[in-house]
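so my prof wants the structure for this chain in the tokens format not the other one, which i didnt know existed until like an hour ago. anyway here's the sequence
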Amino acid sequence: MPDVALPRRYRGKPTWGFGVVLFVSCGLLVLKVGVESSMPGWGTALLGALLAAFCAGLLYAGTRAFTTVDRRGIILRRMFRVRRFAWDDIHDIRTVNAPPGDRGMAPGTSVYLYRTDGRRMILPFLDDNEMTGVEQEVEGLRSLLTERRRADWAPDPRAEPRIARQAARWEHMHQKAVVVGLVLVVVAVIVFLTGL
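here's what i got, hopefully its the right format
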């Protein structure tokens, strides 16, 4: 990735469909509460205004999130927080693939920044839902990482074992989640069929 391409900013695609669904859902909730409760009209209006402000705030904060790569490092801006990682504070940048058949609407390939202590941070909007060619982009970021670090930079020997433990822990948690999900489906079917 040549220096000419810096800074690079990765943003999400507009999610207006999500915003419409969110506002309609809140509106229906306010109507339901207003009709089924003894709440006065001004209370229903206040609840509606508060929910609308909350939804608008979430949508606005979501549009401000991004990942930026510049000459000094990587900046992660989330809804309420900004974090900057200098090139020397980054151990590696790697892709992580979701288990097959378990994707849903989530990205199949996500990109993680691994700090020098081995902890990982997801890079918002660097995934296969937001862009094509994620693997090539990560290769470019990794070459930039190697190029931008100090000449005397050395990896922390504790980082790789921690990364391996984290990966094993995530795999174990995923297996537990699948089992719990299957049990819940079986229970739901039993309840539906027996009419409990």
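also thought this was worth mentioning. Helices lie at 16-36, 41-64, 134-148, 159-194.
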